[in-house]
């Protein structure tokens, strides 16, 4: 039995996704039943995310929801995933545990950015050493096989950058979780299509856990994932994206064309937003780590839009980007990259002026706000 998606030229044999569905549902249930007692404990010990000038929420909210997310993923994989003694797999799960611990400490004591960066770089280097690294650009800008030193450099930058990009975009209710969920499902589908169904189970397990978390995190949020969740979410998506690229480059019959571009589209919004914000701060003579209200979600919330509205608009943009990259996969990679870059610039321009434009037609404005929250 297969499920054809004619518009996207996909034909997915549903039998290939039996264990994926089991992983997804198990993680969903475990996370769903874990969050209420975690909220109770956090309230008991007053472990809140306290609002300040750069944060969007106005009341203390329980944090460290990432504990429930990782718990759901872990139980699911213990039941349905075939573990091995491969160094890459051992180091991956060890890295997830270290990042979970790092996130808990950061949510409790607000660790320095330098300390977190050192650990993230070390974990990224560890993954590169065990073989999960970018070895080729597949001819993009004329670059094919990379020298070994470049492989390590690009891989460490990619993993560290994506991990922090998801951490930085976790600024309003439901945003990081929603984008992460869409990215994980996409990775799970593409990894399965590529023949790496075991790695795909990690994506589906984490996706199920994140979806359950979103039930409590959508506006108005009852709990935040905190760095406990966002660091793990970004790291897993980064490593699985690299694995997708690697599997299609080294495989004898690659399923996806222009895989590096496909992988970039999966993380494009957080990465683009981080680069845009950092560039803007440097241009204005500030540190790139100077806290402000210039992230992509702030473009909407600064105009008075709700968290729910802003998150849904950005979900839609993320979906458009993913579909664009896949539909255009047969084009030259440089053209796809240009198209994606222009799309993000256009979306940024529109978001900055959305309130002004829609405000001119109050009926349309009110209808859109009511529909999207």
Describe the protein.
- With 373 residues, the protein is mainly α.
- It has one domain (2-372).
- The protein is 69% helix and 5% strand.
- It is built from 13 helices and 6 strands.
- The chain has helices at 18-44, 66-80, 87-109, 113-129, 148-169, 175-193, 197-217, 226-250, 259-283, 298-301, 307-327, 333-359, 362-372, and strands spanning 2-5, 10-13, 48-49, 61-62, 136-140, 143-145.
- It has a two-stranded antiparallel ribbon with strand order 1-2.
- Strand 5 and strand 6 (143-145) form a beta hairpin.
- Helix 1 (18-44) runs antiparallel to helix 2 (66-80) and helix 3 (87-109) runs antiparallel to helix 8.
- The radius of gyration is 20 Å and the shape is globular.
- It starts with a strand and ends with a helix.
- The model has no long low-confidence stretch (mean pLDDT 90).
Q: What's the average pLDDT?
A: 90
> Which structural class fits the helix and strand makeup?
mainly alpha
Shape: globular
Please outline the major beta sheet. Answer: 2 strands, antiparallel
Give a count of the beta strands, DSSP E runs of length 2 or more. 6
* CA-atom Rg in angstroms: 20 Å
Question: Total helix count?
Answer: 13
H/E topology pattern: EEHEEHHHEEHHHHHHHHH
The separation of the N and C termini measures 38 Å
Q: Provide the low-confidence segments as ranges.
A: none
Strands side by side in the biggest sheet: 1-2
Beta fraction: 5-15%
Q: Determine the fraction of residues in helical runs and give it as a percent range.
A: 55-70%
Tally of structural domains: 1
């Amino acid at each position: 039995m297969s499920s054809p998606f004619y518009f996207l030229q996909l034909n997915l044999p549903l039998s290939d996704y039996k264990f994926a569905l089991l992983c997804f549902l198990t993680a969903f249930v475990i996370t769903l039943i874990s969050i209420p007692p975690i909220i109770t404990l956090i309230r008991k010990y007053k472990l809140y995310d306290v609002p300040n000038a750069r944060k969007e929420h106005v009341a203390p909210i329980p944090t460290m929801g990432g504990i429930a997310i990782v718990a759901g993923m872990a139980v699911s994989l213990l039941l349905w995933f075939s573990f091995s003694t491969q160094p890459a797999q051992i180091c991956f799960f060890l890295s997830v545990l270290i990042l979970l611990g790092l996130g808990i400490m950061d949510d409790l004591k607000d660790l320095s950015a330098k300390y977190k960066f050192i650990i993230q770089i070390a974990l990224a280097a560890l993954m590169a050493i065990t073989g999960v690294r970018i070895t080729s650009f597949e001819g993009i800008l004329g670059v094919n096989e990379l020298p070994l030193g470049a492989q390590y450099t690009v891989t460490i930058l990619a993993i560290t950058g994506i991990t922090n990009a998801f951490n930085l975009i976790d600024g309003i209710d439901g945003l990081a979780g929603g984008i992460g969920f869409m990215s994980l499902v996409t990775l799970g589908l593409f990894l399965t299509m590529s023949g790496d169904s075991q790695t795909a189970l990690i994506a589906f397990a984490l996706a199920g856990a994140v979806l359950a978390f979103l039930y409590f995190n959508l506006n108005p949020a009852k709990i935040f994932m905190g760095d406990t969740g966002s660091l793990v979410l970004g790291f897993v998506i980064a490593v699985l994206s690299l694995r997708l690229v690697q599997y299609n480059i080294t495989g004898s019959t690659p399923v996806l064309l222009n895989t590096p571009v496909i992988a970039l589209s999966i993380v494009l919004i957080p990465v683009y937003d981080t680069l845009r914000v950092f560039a803007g701060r440097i241009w204005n003579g500030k540190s790139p780590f100077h806290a402000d209200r210039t992230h992509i979600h702030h473009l909407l919330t600064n105009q008075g839009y709700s968290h729910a509205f802003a998150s849904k608009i950005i979900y839609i943009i993320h979906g458009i980007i993913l579909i664009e990259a896949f539909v255009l996969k047969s084009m030259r990679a440089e053209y796809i990259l240009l198209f994606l870059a222009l799309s993000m610039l256009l979306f940024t321009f529109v978001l900055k002026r959305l309130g002004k434009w829609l405000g001119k037609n109050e009926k349309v404005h009110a209808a859109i706000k009511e529909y999207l929250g």
